[in-house]
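User: Predict the complex with zinc ion.
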Amino acid sequence: MTYAAKLADDGLCIFLFHGVVERSPYQVRNYTRKHLEKNAFARVLRSLQARGVPVSLELVIQHHQTGTPLPPRAFAITFDDGFENNLTVAAPVLDDFGIPATFYMTTDFIERNRMSWTDRIEWAIEQVSAATLRLPWGTRAFKTAAEARAVLDEIRGHAKQDRSIDPNVLATDIQRQLGFPETWSSDDPLDRKLDWRQVKQLAADPLFTVGGHSHSHAILSFLAPEALDREIDESCRLLDEKAGLAPRHYSYPEGLAHCYSDLVIARLKAKGVVCCPTAEPGLNDHRTDLFRLLRINVD
Ligand SMILES: [Zn+2]
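Assistant: Here is the predicted structure with zinc ion placed in the model:
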């Protein structure tokens, strides 16, 4: 099924992207197609625009508040995590099509050009052809790219569900087991994050909106109340101080049903956030709770 086929006469489709790259020549990395190649991204946008009506999330908020239906086959574009390629590769394509988009920043990724734990693990595995890894739930060996991808799937499954695993401690352990020093930053197009000057540049484009996506990309519902407040407060403080932005828009790290809660939503509302989509799949309409909007992951 193509993405355009998901558009519905009475539903709003919100698409979730992470990045767009010129080329993706990797063996293991990007196997989830977290970053689309530029040509594929342009094809997706062209097909969506041919069948649907692009809307900003600000327009979605307005329709929600006034109780008026959105145009048939409405769709919105969103990007999570703050990759530099959002500005350098994706934004010019969106500008060409005149399609609005919302970009959610993880502020510690921006501050220190940090990689997520999944990228820290993939970065290390990409560079070895075979290895045996001792993981908290057992020993796993891989000799081919396909086997490496299966191990990565298993690591993702465990780390996103089990709150006793600190995924960045696991990533450091895996990097060391594979013979690398503890590594948090890389300038590969799959890793490089926007800096604050670039965040401002993105936010200055009238087509685009910039929002928050936590400070460290921790799963918000796993945090004790004080740690939850720190994550949200720090992300809002940095967006304000470094980019002059008071975020009305936010997205939950990981975004699965167990990754947010009534407490998380209350804390975000207290900071002035009015719209926060999940990463659970499905369609919305103008009545959908703006803190429980569903998104379709593009991969
Ligand atoms: Zn994210």
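Residues 121 and 171 are 5 Å apart (CA to CA).
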